[in-house]
Design a protein that fits this description.
With 293 residues, the chain is of the alpha/beta class. The chain is built from twelve helices and eleven strands. Helix 1 packs antiparallel against helix 2, helix 3 runs antiparallel to helix 4 and helix 4 runs antiparallel to helix 5. It catalyses: O-phospho-L-serine + H2O = L-serine + phosphate; O-phospho-D-serine + H2O = D-serine + phosphate.
């Protein structure tokens, strides 16, 4: 059995549901039941006795896009663990691209970032190449970048603080840098931060990194590590937008692609394409009066 919850355009929802129901009638995922959730007039729940998640998501994309959706095999519940990417997920920017602008290198660095997030380049090589381009940039540029450029995405703090209030452990894990992530985590409310460290000497970036690389395998390892502490029955939600988020998205109970690159979106069983991050609270059936503002 599959259960899908989605938020789509309310003005066309009934017509779109009728069309999808008709298209799935003789497939492996016929619509057995569909209704709006009582607590919220925005969330449509669709149930099917089938188990072909790819077919169901294809139908939802065909009939409801853009939508905010989660498809699950088990009952929905608030996760015990939330692990999220930072750049272009919890914040609206790619920190390294914005920092590179202070060295007049944004276009060059951003082009590498885009290819890495699309999965076209090896993440570690692309990271080291971009960091090397920043050699000699003053460390004060990081502070200016944070103050002038870096902003949380709409709903990020409400999502994280509400999940915490529900007993969920929250971890920010990024292929970006602690110089940014520590501040962002404090601003949004994450309890733990895992990321890369820029090497600084004499107040300037050396163009190198300190310690190991936080990459896709690290992100999944952090999710696995945190889940192990919570016990066998723990439920995880992971959110990201790029190729390096795919392993943790695939490993989570609810793997969420936030305005994501195609490969990351294809790997997820949930996505936010339409609203802000509070859409996830609605899909998890957390009433708005319970949200932590």
């Amino acid at each position: 059995m599959l259960i899908a919850r989605l938020i789509a355009d309310p003005t066309t929802l009934e017509r779109q549901l009728d069309a999808m129901t008709a298209s799935l009638a003789n497939t492996s995922v016929p619509v057995a039941h569909a209704a709006m959730l009582d607590f919220c007039g925005e969330v449509l729940q669709i149930e099917t006795p089938g188990d072909d998640m790819a077919a169901l998501r294809s139908a939802i994309d065909s009939h409801f896009a853009p939508s905010d959706t989660i498809i699950a095999r088990d009952a929905f519940r608030v996760p015990d663990l939330f692990v999220s990417d930072m750049d272009s997920t919890m914040i609206g920017q790619e920190c390294i691209d914005e920092l590179a602008d202070f060295a007049n290198l944004k276009d060059k660095v951003a082009a590498i970032t885009e290819r890495a997030m699309q999965g076209e380049l090896d993440f570690e090589s692309a990271l080291r190449e971009r960091v090397a381009l920043l050699e000699g940039l003053g460390e004060d540029a990081i502070t200016r970048c944070l103050d002038e450029r870096i902003r949380p995405n709409d709903g990020a703090r409400v999502l994280v603080e509400t999940l915490k209030a529900k007993g969920c452990r929250t971890v920010l894990v990024t292929g970006g840098f602690h110089h940014f992530a520590d501040i962002v985590a404090e601003l949004i409310g994450f309890e733990r931060v895992v990321g890369n460290r820029l090497e600084v000497s004499g107040g300037k970036l050396t163009g190198g990194l300190v310690g190991g690389i936080t990459d896709s395998s690290t992100k999944k390892a952090v999710l696995d590590e945190e889940l192990a502490k919570l016990g066998d029955r723990a439920c995880a939600m992971a959110a990201g937008d790029g190729a390096n988020d795919i392993p943790m998205i695939e490993a989570a109970t609810f793997g969420i692609a936030y305005r994501a690159k195609p490969k990351a979106r294809a790997a997820a069983n949930g996505w936010v394409d339409r609203g802000d991050l509070t859409a996830l609270l609605k899909l998890l059936e957390v009433r708005e009066e319970e949200w932590v503002a």
